[in-house]
Amino acid sequence: MPHIVVKNYKKFNTPIQKDKFNFLWFAKPLKNAKEELVAVEYENHKFLLSIKDKNSEIVIKSDKTTRISPSTIIKKAIVNFCELAKCEIIRSNISNIDEKHLKKSEEFLKTIDFFEKSFPKNKEVWIEIGFGSGRHLLYQAKQNPDIMFIGIEIHKPSIEQVLKQIEIQKLRNIYVIDYDARLFLEFVPSNIVGKIFVHFPVPWDKKPHRRVISKKFIEEAKRVLKLDGVLELRTDSKNYFDYSLELFLEQKKVKLEVTKNIEPPIVSKYEDRWLRLNKDIYDIRMINIEKSEPLKIDFDFEFKKEYNLENIVKNFDTKPKVFDDFFVHFEKLYQIDSDRYLIKISFGNFDRPEHKYLLITKNKIEYFPKKPVLSRGNIKAHKKIEEILNGK
Ligand SMILES: C[S@@+](CC[C@H](N)C(=O)[O-])C[C@H]1O[C@@H](n2cnc3c(N)ncnc32)[C@H](O)[C@@H]1O
Q: Ligand 1 site: residues with CB under 6 angstroms?
């Protein structure tokens, strides 16, 4: 991670602009004063730099919660900060990076905001979950140029590798997202997906709650699939097959196709391994036979109630609050000045918690740097946050 280590720095008055960077305010924790944050605005990005005292050296780097990409912006912000703060630099790992390459991968690597705001609808969409080496995803995208592919993965080296291949193979019909597939379908409009591939998911025999296939996942898949759209599970694990088949059969109305040891159009890296070991391979295909209601989630994440700043500070409680399917955790309280505070907070779904800050002024509370994504877990958590801040 880009950082500069300094001996000391001088705090400057904010707001102040340098190059295109607007340094908005400093925030200091009420407890543990060894860390300070500085808010930065650059074009339409807002983020925080963290200034941490570590064994009498001060490390300046991006705050994890608000980190943005490309990292070039962060690097430039740190350099500008150091110039304004007249830092005595000890060492730095900030060097030039290939901006061109970054721009290219950004074209295909999307964040959840992209899908939340403007889900691609002008072409039929196929989704691959946990694409790994990407063999199947790349093959399908090449074979089907009129289909828009979305590849979902959480393993960063696999994502990098596939982004490189997209460039090398000059593919134009794949978006890649680093996101938990168990939650992604929540953002997909109803009845628009032709195929969902779940090939060789991690069996998680000891932690079944981490499995991609679940009752909720099957229901969401049914909602997003077009009529005759297919969810395809391929696995070498008899246990996962049995578990999934049972869940599919729990659906009220469903069409299923089960096959064993059928040759696929392309053999994935995992499949290769199992075939060499002569393992059986099972497929379940769920074919959607029902049209679903349109997706209707609309929520503004605004704080509308009256708040008492003094009470919020006085009653600040860092104990996590856990509910059936979401949680709220007020982690840390920072002071900006006598009228402004900042709260570090995590909340929402257990599998994909949202990490944010709340910027609290005398008459307004807002999320910093931006509102949470529109998921059901986040909506429930937001309502609870309002209640808590309101003293309930
Ligand atoms: C066993 S590998 C299979 C890869 C590939 N489908 C194949 O057949 O070669 C499972 C992949 O799923 C990814 N994965 C696991 N859980 C995931 C989740 N919740 N969301 C997205 N990807 C996930 C893992 O990172 C891993 O790359």
A: 129-133, 152-155, 158, 180-182, 199-202, 212, 268-271
